[in-house]
Design brief:
The protein is α/β, with parallel strands linked by helices and about 280 residues long. It has helices spanning about 10-20, 40-50, 65-75, 95-105, 105-115, 135-140, 180-190, 200-215, 215-225, 230-240, 255-265, and strands at about 25-30, 55-60, 80-85, 120-125, 160, 165-170. It folds into 2 domains: about 10-170, Rossmann fold, CATH 3.40.50; about 200-265, Conserved Hypothetical Protein Ylqf, Chain: A, domain 2 (Orthogonal Bundle), CATH 1.10.1580.10. The chain contains 11 helices and 6 strands. Strands 3-2-1-4-6-5 form a 6-stranded mixed sheet. Helix 8 crosses helix 10 and helix 10 (about 230-240) crosses helix 11 (about 255-265).
């Protein structure tokens, strides 16, 4: 499947990030713990340069626990601090502040030498569409300040949000990049970072079932009562039959079945799944 999606506002967001770097002390990159590699914008490293960065592995409650641990270790080995988080739950703002302060030790030491008592840390929040940025910001700021939705790319403009904990957050719209390989495109589509409306979700679901057969066959059996050793199309049709997704003419309703399977995955009903290994 050839998947690419790069709306005009994403090009503008890239330029905004570049233009506003000088306004912030540190970058907070929110990624999807289910796809830790695919949900990291490769353009970001080039854009932010040497600016300090912390990674939030969001939706970690939907991801494989063992893989969560493995990815945190991988990032640590790359000298990048990574935190596991479910942004729908209460966030320890002080913990994030303290970690940011550690990453900005040089700045605070210089301020101390000059007798400057400035505890404020200005942080830019970046991430791909549907990574949970807006929910995270609303949670950390304890108020409904950012636009939230389950459709990719709903945050369209730059927003400054103040918290009660010496953190000032600069929110930016979710941004993808112009071209990515097939596997990355599939992972972004499975997790709804790319709109279903532009995809052939029947083909996407078939690919997803193949991936599940390879990495999590037992979860298919547990959720749908199917034989994971069958061909992916047969599993697809078995699920359609078991879920009553049959047209009036007696054919399988592949679109309805696709929505059932993808919704089960995205909501966590299928189980805790990580689609990429470190």
């Amino acid at each position: 499947m050839n998947i690419n999606w790069y709306p005009g506002h994403m090009k503008k967001t890239k330029e905004e990030i570049q233009n506003n770097l000088k306004l912030v002390d540190i970058i907070l990159e929110i990624i999807d713990a289910r796809i830790p590699e695919s949900s990291r914008n490769p353009m970001l490293a080039e854009i932010i340069g040497q600016k300090p960065r912390i990674i939030i592995m969001n939706k970690s409650d939907l991801a494989d626990e063992e893989m969560n641990k493995a990815w945190v270790i991988k990032f640590r080995n790359e000298n990048t601090k990574a935190l596991l988080m479910n942004s729908k739950e209460k966030i320890n703002v002080n913990k994030i502040y303290q970690i940011a302060k550690e990453e900005l030790k040089e700045k605070f030491d210089k301020n101390k030498e000059k007798n400057i008592e400035n505890k404020i840390i200005r942080m830019m929040i970046v991430g791909i569409p549907n990574s949970g940025k807006s929910t995270f910001i609303n949670n950390i700021s304890k108020r409904k300040s950012a636009n939230v939705g389950n459709r990719p790319g709903i945050t369209k403009t730059k927003q400054w949000i103040k918290t009660n904990d010496n953190l000032e957050l600069l929110d930016t719209p979710g941004v993808l990049w112009p071209k990515f390989d097939e596997e990355t495109g599939l992972n972004l589509s499975y997790t709804h970072a790319i709109k279903d409306e532009i995809l052939n979700i029947e083909d996407l679901t078939l690919k997803f079932l193949e991936k599940m057969q390879e990495d999590y066959p037992k979860l298919l059996t547990k959720r749908y009562g199917v034989d994971p050793d069958k061909k992916a199309l047969e599993i697809y049709e078995d699920i359609a039959r078991k879920r009553g997704a049959i047209t009036k003419g007696g054919d399988f309703d592949y679109t309805r079945t696709a929505n059932i399977i993808l919704t089960d995955f995205r909501s966590g009903k299928l189980g805790r799944i990580t689609l990429e290994r470190p």
